[in-house]
């Protein structure tokens, strides 16, 4: 029951769902997620913690950078939840806009992007 509630809680917020779907395109640095969502770093960190608690995302730390990605080998309920979100929202206008924004964000220098969130 707790696992189910953790997943439904994680999927009950638009910013968390947008972050989850953004990871469909591959791993992202937390600064890239902050830039895409346009939210404060502390808010994004809280959202990502909820997604991690639900096991919808994984965290990898490399030096000073923290990267999020979809689970490499998700359990069936997690895999189904992610597939459901993609299927329902893949054509959503906000999600499509995020995909376009991410193209530019991914091209930007990670050092420059992350530096503005370190202060």
Describe the structure.
The chain has 119 residues and is mainly alpha-helical. It has one domain: Arc Repressor Mutant, subunit A (Orthogonal Bundle), CATH 1.10.10.10. 62% of the residues lie in helices and 10% in strands. Strand 2 and strand 3 (65-69) form a beta hairpin. Helix 2 crosses helix 4 (41-53). The longest helix is centred in the last third of the chain and has 15 residues, at 93-107. It is globular. The mean pLDDT is 92.
Share in helix: 55-70%
How many angstroms separate the termini?
A: 40 Å
CATH architecture term? Orthogonal Bundle
When the domains are counted, the total is: 1
Question: CATH topology, anyone?
Answer: Arc Repressor Mutant, subunit A
Query: Could you describe the largest sheet, including whether it forms a barrel?
Result: 3 strands, antiparallel
Determine the mean pLDDT: 92
Question: Helical stretch count?
Answer: 7
Q: What's the gyration radius in Å? A: 14 Å
CATH class: Mainly Alpha
In terms of quaternary structure, the protein is single chain
């Amino acid at each position: 029951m707790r696992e189910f509630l953790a997943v439904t809680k994680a999927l009950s917020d638009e910013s968390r769902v947008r972050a989850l779907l953004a990871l469909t395109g591959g791993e992202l640095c937390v600064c890239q997620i902050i830039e895409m969502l346009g939210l404060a770093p502390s808010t994004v960190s809280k959202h990502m913690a909820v997604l991690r608690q639900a096991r919808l995302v994984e965290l990898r730390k490399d030096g000073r950078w923290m990267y999020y990605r979809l689970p490499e080998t998700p359990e069936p309920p997690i895999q189904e939840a992610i597939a459901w979100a993609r299927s329902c929202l893949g054509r959503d206008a906000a999600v499509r806009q995020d995909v376009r924004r991410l193209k530019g964000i991914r091209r930007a220098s990670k050092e420059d992007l992350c530096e503005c969130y370190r202060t």
